[in-house]
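INTERNAL TRANSFER SHEET
From: sequence group
To: structure group
Subject: Aminoglycoside phosphotransferase

Please process the attached sequence and return the structure record in the designated field. Keep the field labels unchanged so the import script can parse them.
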Amino acid sequence: MVETAYAEPPLAAWSSILTAPRAQRMAHLNPDVRLWSVTADDRSYIVRSFGRWRPGAGMVDEYRVLLHLKDAGFPVAVPIVTDAGTLAARDGHRTYVLVPRLAAEKQEELPTGDVCFQIGSAIGNLHAALAQYPWPVRSYEHDVLQQAFDEALQKLPQAVRESSVRPHQAVVTSSLRGLPRQLIHGDCNAGNILVSRGRVSGVIDLDQLRAAMLAAEITLTSWSHVLLTERRDRARPDERARYDAGVAALSWISRHFAELNAALA
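Return from structure group:
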């Protein structure tokens, strides 16, 4: 069923802390995800709404992981429980979550160079903390090799497969096969790494938590951030290296993957 109405969020579920709230709709690339910026008593919040489908961990598992990361000193937005004592409010088949709004600058305003090192270091710290999470998370396991060579590869033109992918397939497979898996963010693209005043101010959207090779997550974040700045003609030649250096300082897996990248270059 296609939804045509964009209902206002049920802010009354948090009426004990939201006095005369003002909500403003925000854009999101995923049509199933709806966002509002909410202000009340000079404090800022975000309301995030999902439909029936969640891509990874459930809300309880995500909440526990966020508390673990917060206890480890990592800047994350932990959901604020409703007046009824639940993690979310429900309206029809949609779920609404209220979180504090973390400081962040617009993507166009982000500097490069040193900030790339800060982002890389934050990703290393994030996944070091995730690796120490003590309880199982009910989600799925991501097999990056299967996705790359059994699924995504088939979508490429045959000429591209034979000239640009097949020559490297054996090297990539042998290098990545058997690397340890751990709990990862799952969607660590540039838009989910918040930066304020030249420092990483938070990581958001952990709803795709899952077990996978850390190398896959590192690559997603690296290329997402670098390509974003390259599209704006602001990337510096050392930007990718600075990012990788930030992560490699904290993870032997990323050093292994950096060597693989160099071998394929």
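Handover comment: The chain has two domains: 11-100, 107-264. The CA atoms of residues 61 and 137 lie 6 Å apart.
Transfer complete.
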